[in-house]
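Tutorial, part two.
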Amino acid sequence: MLLSVQWGYGQVNTTRICGEIDELKAGEVISLAYYTNRLDYQVQVVRTRIKKGGAFCFEIPLDQARFFHLKYQDILSEEFFVAPKDDLKIQTNLYNDFIEIIEGVDLVTKIQRPAYKYDRSEMKKQQKKCLKSPNRYFSKKRKDLIPSKTYSPFFPSYVQCLIDYQLAYEQILFTNSISALDTLNLNDTLFLSTEPYQSLVISYMQYHYQQKYPDGEKNRFPTKYELGEKMLKGETKEFYQATLLYNMVQEGELENNRSLWEQFMKNAHYQKYIQALSRQQESTAQQPLLVGRHAPTFELKDRNDYTVPLNSFEGKVVFLDFWATWCPPCREEIPHFEKLQQEYQGKEIVFISISVDKSAEKWKKMLDKENMGGVHLRIDFAEKENIQVLKNYQVTSVPRYLLIDKKGNLSAIQAPRPSHSRQIRRIIDSLLEE
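Running the prediction step on this input gives:
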């Protein structure tokens, strides 16, 4: 309760965030953006106009601490912490593909999205260090994550809790142990919008599921849903169950688990999860795509400006991946996607990644940085035919995965993510045998 009051949770207070971007002219629009629901990445945007000298100022009502991005057109800053009653002044630089924050706010990217989430070799390196000396690893990690300087008076106590959740998640990820949770609150609404806490909840529940079913089940959703019902409370329970149902719809398993869906929609208290699931179901229900029909044809350009037609891959299984560099879940899937490609190297399957980035420069830079394999194409929003590809495949959010069989017919219109390794391999293997 004390921390809730300290961070102003539930109390609406005016917060000021001001600064200057010398590179912008008076009258141009700058925005603050934050996620209102990370389940389907709904974003709230607050806009203001640049004044003379590049100055800007936001005055916004806040009822809890949140993580914000500064946004100019499609250019984003790193995420930073803002709490009710904060009065912050940001120093920035604007570059072609990012807004650099020099000082004035507390950055959270290192905790929210550690580098190993997007780099498989880095993940292995961190795990090796952790297993060699867990106490030393976590002690050093905590020291590295604690900022030497803070700006919001509420951030020092907040960041300590955030680090606790991140390190507890890493303990499960690297050592398959949950001992760190002995001293943590796993039903902490204050941190439910943060990635470390969400990752911890999902990993914790996965740990218990694997203890019960080490080899998995053909239909895992009922067991996982019931585990959430027994082990979690309040909004944390609804977040976890909604995440399961969201994945269930995405994998095309709704009809096999209709009773779970109806149970949640009837009993849930938090409208944001009901609304996110309804949007997901509506998007799926309206799709004209049907399994067994011929996949919509397209011709898109690769990074070297060569036109690549889909029908050039007929005779092979095609794994389609719609993604973007600015999409955190997409980036989290990169190591899993690369691993999947390596495992099926030399088989009759091609992996096609289609970026919806408006900036070709950002797209190419990410391809180089991650050394990404497979076929890489991009939607050019200046071309009507390119936009039609998104309409034909009903891509309303990313990441989105589809599978096409050797005859060019749709086999899965909501394929499992690469990180859902058992499910996606089962489908690919069956297609390769046809």
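Residues 1-9 have pLDDT under 50 and may be disordered. In part three we will examine how such features are distributed along the chain.
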